[in-house]
Amino acid sequence: MNNRWKKICSLLTITTMVATMAIGCSTSTKTVPKAPVTKTEEPKTTDKGSIPRNETVYFNGQQWGAITDWNPLSSNSNNAMGVGQKDSARTLLYETLYMYNMLDGKMYPLLADGDAVWNDAHTTLTVKMNKDAKWSDGTAVTANDVAYTFDTNVKYESPGGSDYKTYIESIKATDDSTVVLTAKLNGSGAALNPLKVTEYLPKQYVMQKAYLEKVEARNNKDATKIKTDKMEDFVGSGPYKPSISNDQKVVFQRDDNYWGKATSMWGKLPVPKYIAHNIFKDNAAGDTAFKAGEVDVSQQFISDVASMMSGGKISTYLPESPYYLAATMPTAYFNIKKPGLDQVAVRKAIALAVDYDQIIKTAMSGYSPSFTEVPRTLMSPSKAEQALVDQTALKSVQWTGNDIESAKKLLDTAGIKDTNGDGIREYKGTKLSFKAECPAGWSDWNASLEIVAAAGKKIGIDITTYFPDANTFYDDLGNKNFDIAMYSPSAAGISNPWTRAFGILSSSYNKMKTQMIGNFGGYANARVDKLLELIPHETDQAKLKVYYTELSKIYLTEVPSFSLMYRPELFYTVNETVWTNYPQEGSKSDKGIGIPPYDLTDGYGIAGLYTMKLVK
Measured between alpha carbons, how far is 282 from 135 in angstroms, rounded to an integer? Predict the structure, then answer.
C-alpha cells in the first residue's frame, strides 16, 4: 500500500466527525445536548413581530441556542437550521451542485445541469451549471463561483477545505457554465479516491465569488477573521433568507425571486413563506409544542410516537413500526488491545449473547428493523446499500442475538472458562471484566449498554456500564482509554458504504495517538486495507458486491465491533394540524422522484417544501 494512502485517515473529513458526533448527541430521550455557542455579538437580525401561522412551517430538534454566524467556512456556527454540510447538505439558504437522495443512492442536479461526467481515466469530473441559477442579488451563479469557493476553503483551511484538498487537486472553471474537478493522483496515476471527489458535489456549498472577495477585503485576508466573520450580509442562492435570529426564535423568509421557480428546476416557489424554529429548553418542551400543533415537523427522539399518532394528526414517514427510515448503525467498539478483548472468541461471544430485540423494543421504542429483517453486514438497511452485498454468502457468519448457548460454547471451545467457580470466566488467569461506556443522559444508548452488560453476565463475562459526561467520554474514545464504547459510524451519503466501512475498519487510524474519526479499538487487517483501497476505484457493481461481501465477512468473523441497532439519520415526525401532504413512504416530487425523510431541509428532502399543502 503506498504511503499516501496510509495517510488518508489522518486527513479524513472533520465535517464527517462533526456529523457523527451530532448523530450521537441526538440519541438522548431526555435532552438533546446543545451545540456550543460562542459568546459573540448578537446577530443584527432580530424579532420583527409575529408571522402568519398559515404561512409558516415550524420545526423542533434542529436548532439549540442562538445562531453564532452564517458562515460556511466556520467550524462553530451553531447554525444547524441554516448551515449544515453533512452527507445531505441543508439547502434552505446556501445550495450545493447536487442533492443526495438516500432512497435510491443517487444525486440530482440543483445548481448543476445534468449528471457529472468522469473522463475515461476517471481523473477529472466535469459539471455543467444550470444557466437559470441566480444569487439573491440577481446575478448569475457561474462556474467561477464554484472554483473560487473551493480555492477559498483551501486557502483559509476551513474544515471542508482541509478535507477535500487531500483528494481534489483543483476545481477550475473552463467557461462560465463548466466546472472541472481534477482528482489528486496516487503513485499509479489513478485518482487517489474518486468517491471523495464525487462526495464534494452534494455536500459542499457554492458561495458567491464577489461576496467572498468582499469578506477577504474587510478581514485583510486573515484566515482566523475570515472563518469567524458572521456573514450577516451573505449572498445566497437558496429559496430562503434570514428574517429573525435571536435566542428565542429563528425564522427564514422565502425569497420570492428565487431562481428555482424556473422550469429547469422546481418550476415554482416552495409552499411555506416562512421556515421557523423556536429555541426550546429541552426535548420535553419541544414535544409539548409539537403535540399541541405549535410545531409542524419534529426532529426529536419521541419515546412513544405510536401513542402520539393515535389522534390522527401526527404521523411518521413509515405508517407502522419501525416508523422511521434507518440510515446508520450505532456500534459497540471493542478495544482489542485489552487482554481478553484481543480474543475473537470473547468479542464474538458478547455479540452473540446480546438481546438486540430487547434493545429495539425498549431503548429504541421499536424504531429499528431487527437483525432478522435486515441481517447484519456493514450496510445500512437502504435498498441501495443492500444491493451491494450478498446476504446468502454471509449467513454462516451472521447472528441475530440472545444466543446464550452458542456464546458459552464458543468460549468453552476457546478454553476460556470459569476455573474458580465465582461465575466469571478467566483468560490467562485474569477475570474477564470490562466497562461499557457512552455519555450520561443519552438514555436510549445507556439502556442499550445495560442490555449488553446483562448479556455478558449470562455467559460469565463481567460487564459494567459507565456513563461519564460527554467530554470525558470523547477523551476516552479518542485516546483508546476504554474497554467497550458505543458510537455511531457514518450514515447515508454518496460515498457510503465505503466511508462507513473505512471508519469502522481501516488500520490507518492506528498510528494516530488521538483521534475522533473511526476504528477506535485499533483493529488491523491487511486484506481489509486492500479492499478499502480497491473499492473507491471500482465502478463495476458486480465487483463492488464481491468486495463489500468479503469485507462484511471479515468484519462479522473477527468482530472488532458490532452494531446494536439500525437508526434514522434524522427523526422525521409531522403534525398535520396546519399543514398536510408531507412526504411519506411512496411520496414523489413533481418530477416523479421519491422524497426521502430529510425533514424538508436536507438533500432531495427539500422537495417536500414544494408538495405540502395547507389544511383547509
Answer: 36
